């Protein structure tokens, strides 16, 4: 099952970089052009230069974003800007953050695990796309490093590891701290105690890992492993910190600091879209609550819609609808789950069919708007947004946007149920907040015989 390995993390040297917050980033797939430029300006040593470097018109096979990433990594290691810790360890990683008016602390630990194909002890729940995997593989081939974390979930109601970590973190200072772009606090500790490491390995030995975030990076790590096993014929019995392993942060599904945020859909470029016809078609399978809307009462009406949507999250399948220029906001509640079961037949499990995002994508986006899986993969009709009111602002402001579809967050238990069936959820089904910082704790792989 889950095999966990201690490793000698590579971290920023505070003697060389006084402000760790200036050199860490959000995960590569969250970095847009504005964030990329901001990170470049924040510090010459910012990890963006490794994980998502600038591209230029004259790039070639010998000089490109990947080769420049390798050059930066090697320089920073040589200059001791990045330092490798002396002793293999497992690293408690805590994140203190605010969400929906409440302060949480999410507790996890960082280690290496085997980069096995999804399904072989590691369960995946999201579909992956070819282009991001090619990009990440090119980066791993040139840098031999993991700067981004695979976010793994596991299930242990007894919280054995968390209790032991807390005993340690209560008495010891972290080895590294940072504040992210959203003001959330990140801290990590180093535990080298063999007894603790053995305890973690034993607790995790019969556990399944579920990928919460980082599906593309995990599959890429598996592809990288295959390449390097053929090249070096290496295995875990002979080498440490080698290409058969990948860095991950493991978080207990039962941790009270673990929450999932919703990801809303912004729809555009739907041909011949007619709001009245859409509402009529929607009413065939959904009970509709309508809220009269004008620009003057937008905030009040939107809050009413969102409140009704949230009320339904534990017992019903409901979705909010905001259409540009339409004098109503809607909450659409599925009349009966059998509608979804009938639509999917035997092609999907009942667990998958009961997901709000599955119902949204199948019964509304595909059946009523013509946005199928190919369109989603091609990103021709849908964009994504976390905040309710940001969706409304964007629909009002951006000419191409036609509507926003609002969804309740996916439950952690639903992720487990779907992953156990080896099924993949629709894209952007989960949003775990805050993200794990890139560049905070790093795995720079070496082929080094164990003593």
List the helices and strands and how they pair.
Blueprint: E1 4-5, E2 10-12, H1 33-42, H2 48-51, H3 65-78, E3 82-84, E4 91-99, E5 102-114, E6 122-123, H4 130-143, E7 145-146, E8 150-154, H5 160-171, E9 176-179, E10 185-188, H6 194-204, E11 209-213, H7 215-232, E12 239-240, E13 245-252, E14 260-261, E15 264-268, H8 275-285, E16 286-292, H9 298-311, E17 318-323, E18 328-334, H10 337-344, H11 350-353, H12 356-366, H13 373-378, E19 382-385, H14 388-397, E20 401-407, H15 412-420, E21 431-432, E22 443-444, E23 448-449
Parallel strand pairs: 6-11, 8-13
Antiparallel strand pairs: 1-5, 2-3, 4-5, 4-10, 5-13, 7-22, 8-11, 9-10, 12-23, 14-21, 15-19, 15-20, 16-18, 17-18, 17-20
Features:
451 residues, alpha+beta, 9-stranded mixed beta sheet, 2 domains
Q: How would you describe what is shown here?
A:
35% of the residues lie in helices and 24% in strands. With 451 residues, the protein is an alpha+beta fold. The strands form six sheets. Strands 1, 4, 5, 6, 8, 9, 10, 11 and 13 form a nine-stranded mixed sheet that branches. A six-stranded antiparallel sheet has the order 16-18-17-20-15-19, sandwiched between helices. Helix 4 crosses helix 7. The radius of gyration is 23 Å and the shape is globular. The mean pLDDT is 92.
């Amino acid at each position: 099952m889950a095999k966990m390995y201690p490793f000698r993390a590579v971290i920023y040297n505070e003697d060389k970089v006084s402000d760790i917050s200036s050199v860490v980033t959000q995960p590569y797939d969250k970095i847009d052009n504005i964030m990329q430029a901001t990170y470049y300006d924040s510090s010459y040593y910012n990890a963006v230069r490794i994980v998502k470097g600038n591209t230029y018109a004259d790039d070639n096979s010998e000089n490109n974003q990947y080769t420049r990433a390798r050059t930066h990594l090697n320089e920073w290691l040589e200059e001791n800007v990045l330092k490798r810790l002396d002793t293999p360890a497992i690293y408690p990683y805590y994140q203190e953050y605010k969400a929906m008016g409440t302060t949480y602390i999410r507790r996890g630990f960082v280690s290496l695990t085997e980069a096995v194909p999804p399904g072989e002890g590691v369960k995946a729940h999201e579909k992956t796309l070819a282009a991001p995997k090619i990009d990440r593989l090119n980066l791993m081939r040139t840098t031999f490093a993991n700067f981004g974390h695979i976010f793994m979930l596991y299930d242990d109601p007894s919280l054995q590891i968390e209790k032991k970590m807390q005993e340690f973190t209560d008495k010891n200072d972290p080895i590294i701290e940072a504040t992210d772009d959203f003001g959330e606090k990140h801290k990590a500790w180093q535990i080298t105690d063999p007894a603790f490491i053995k305890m973690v390995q034993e607790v995790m030995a019969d556990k399944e890992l579920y990928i919460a975030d980082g599906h593309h990076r995990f599959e890429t790590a598996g592809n990288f492993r295959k390449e390097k096993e053929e090249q070096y014929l290496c295995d875990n019995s002979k080498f440490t910190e080698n290409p058969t392993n990948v860095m991950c942060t493991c978080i207990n599904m039962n941790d009270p600091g673990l929450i999932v945020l919703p990801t809303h859909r912004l729809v555009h470029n739907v041909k011949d879209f007619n709001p009245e016809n859409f509402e009529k078609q929607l009413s065939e399978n959904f009970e509709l609550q309508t809220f009269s809307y004008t620009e003057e009462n937008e905030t009040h009406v939107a809050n009413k819609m969102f409140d009704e949507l949230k009320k339904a999250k534990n017992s019903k399948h409901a979705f909010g609808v905001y259409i540009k220029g339409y004098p109503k906001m809607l909450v659409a509640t599925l009349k009966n789950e059998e509608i979804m079961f009938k639509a999917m037949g035997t092609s999907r499990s009942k667990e998958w069919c009961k997901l709000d995002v599955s119902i949204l994508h199948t019964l509304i986006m595909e059946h009523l708007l013509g946005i199928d899986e190919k369109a989603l993969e091609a990103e021709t009709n849908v964009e994504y947004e976390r905040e309710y009111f940001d969706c409304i602002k964007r629909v009002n402001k951006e000419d191409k946007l036609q509507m926003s579809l609002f969804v309740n967050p996916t439950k952690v238990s639903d992720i487990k149920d779907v992953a156990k069936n080896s099924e993949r959820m629709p894209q952007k089904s989960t949003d775990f907040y805050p993200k794990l910082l890139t560049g905070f704790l790093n795995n720079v792989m070496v082929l080094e015989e164990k003593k």
